[in-house]
Write a sequence for this structure.
């Protein structure tokens, strides 16, 4: 899994935001019960989790419990808790914060997955519509090349009609990548050197291949994205005439 700049900022927020919130609540310490203070800190944990990630949410929950203890339980400015009720509140703050942070992060992940699935589905449907309306298989192949370049983050994507020269790395129908007959660990090793072959096959008939050249430093696409790429290539193959080469 990639750890982006946004993820790093979220982790920092997870450590700092509860501390700042606990400080801002200090003037209200005498008029607001510890339980209500803990509820406010839970809101901070949820905000960090929803905007960040699971590690950030977990850190925010731990930070909230610690600074609640330090600033809002007796003896103040100490990590010792004198009152049993405050101890229970602090432990509940930690437990609830951890649970809510994971639920919020999961909801964010599911939302992102749903958006990705919808995008992939639109790509497939859009290509299928073009194939049904267009009289030229060239148009379909050009559309698939553009979709592949975007979904796989490619620097270049070209199509070769009916050729099988050389033994480049190959993107297989199951989404795996093979190099010289061996399965290549794409997630761990990144794209293999050079162009990767994606064959366009429909109804068992080979029509050509797409040669995929990733952009420098491109993150390997997810398995789902690779499977969508395979389906797009199959749509291009179905649109091709048996005899006519594609002008690409």
């Amino acid at each position: 899994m990639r750890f982006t700049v946004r993820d790093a900022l979220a982790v920092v927020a997870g450590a700092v935001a509860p501390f700042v919130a606990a400080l801002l609540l200090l003037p209200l310490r005498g008029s607001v019960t510890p339980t209500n203070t803990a509820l406010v800190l839970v809101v901070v944990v949820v905000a960090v989790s929803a905007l960040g990630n699971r590690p950030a949410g977990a850190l925010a929950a731990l930070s909230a419990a610690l600074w609640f203890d330090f600033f809002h339980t007796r003896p103040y400015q100490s990590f010792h808790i004198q009152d049993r009720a405050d101890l229970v509140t602090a432990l509940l703050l930690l437990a609830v914060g951890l649970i809510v942070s994971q639920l919020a992060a999961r909801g964010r992940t599911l939302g992102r997955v749903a958006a990705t699935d919808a995008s992939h589905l639109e790509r497939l449907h859009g290509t299928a519509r073009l194939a049904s309306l267009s009289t030229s298989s060239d148009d379909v192949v050009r559309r698939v090349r553009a979709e592949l370049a975007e979904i796989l983050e490619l620097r270049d994507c070209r199509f070769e009609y009916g050729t099988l020269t050389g033994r480049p790395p190959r993107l297989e129908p199951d989404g795996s990548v093979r190099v010289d007959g061996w399965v290549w660990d794409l997630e761990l090793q990144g794209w293999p050197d050079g162009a990767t072959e994606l064959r366009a096959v429909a109804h068992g008939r080979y029509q050509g291949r797409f040669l995929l050249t990733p952009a420098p430093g491109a993150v390997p696409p997810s398995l789902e994205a690779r499977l969508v790429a395979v389906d797009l290539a199959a749509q291009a193959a179905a649109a091709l005439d048996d005899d006519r080469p594609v002008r690409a």
Remarks:
- The chain has a mean pLDDT of 83.
